[in-house]
Amino acid sequence: MSVTAVPLRPVSRRVLSMLWGGLGVAAVAAFGLAWVGTGPVIAQTGSAAQFLSWNAGQPGVTQTASGLQYQMLKAGEGDSPADTDVVLVKYKGMLRDGTVFDQNERAPMEVAQVIPGFSEGLKLLKRGGQARFWIKPELGYGEREVGGGKIPANSLLIFEVELIDFIPAAVLQQMQQQQQGAGVPGGMPGGIPGAR
Predict the structure, then answer these.
(1) Any idea where the domains of the chain sit in the sequence?
(2) Sheet holding 85-94, edge to edge
(3) Which DSSP category does 8 fall into?
(4) pLDDT score recorded for residue 37
(5) How far apart are CA 87 and CA 170, in angstroms?
(6) Where does the chain cross the membrane (predicted)?
(7) What is the pLDDT of residues 138-153, one digit of tens each?
């Protein structure tokens, strides 16, 4: 039995170059698709640092020098609050899994008396502005567990915030003193009944 050899024509360099180029493009595309596909997995199960690294590349997300990430949802008007101001905000605080740990429709708070990441975020807003903040553990509660376990240690915090209004703390104190000094008809002299 004999084997008949079929002569093969030599392949030109141009064809080989196109073949290798096509394989290279396919490999890059496969790597890119694999990388994009891991984003949602990292968002759900990765560490806080991995999530923030992924989140920083999302459309509309800005990261400050401290590591606070925010997305402006609605621009406000006028000035922004300072550390010496008291703000009135609507907010919802969540963990990465969507668990809401706190929310309020009209909460007054001193800008300097909240966690560093929230304070920094408030100072980026203007009256009527709305934003979403992603606060890394170091700018939140760090290694402390808070709220009877509602916020585990080393939690990444997500806040949706609307800045309703703000005034300087000194003005608020002056208003409160004037209100207490005026007395309330039918109430205890010098203030609101039962207030001390």
Answers:
(1) 62-174
(2) 62-63, 69-74, 130-135, 157-168, 85-94, 100-110
(3) P
(4) 59
(5) 13
(6) 18-37
(7) 999 999 999 888 999 9
Residue 167 has which token pair?
A: 């005034």
Please tell me the distance from the alpha carbon of residue 144 to that of residue 40, in angstroms, as a whole number: 27
- Confidence at 105, pLDDT banded by 50, 70, 90: very high
Q: How far does Cα 194 stand from its chain's mean position?
A: 40
- The class (CATH top level) of 62-174 is alpha beta
Q: Which residues contact 81 (CB under 8 A, 6 or more apart)?
A: 87, 111, 122, 123, 125, 163, 166
Give the confidence band of 102 by pLDDT, cuts at 50, 70, 90.
Answer: very high
pLDDT at 8: 67
The dihedrals phi and psi of 88, each to the nearest 5 degrees, come to -115, 115
How far lies 36's CA from each of 48, 57, 103, in Å? 18, 11, 33
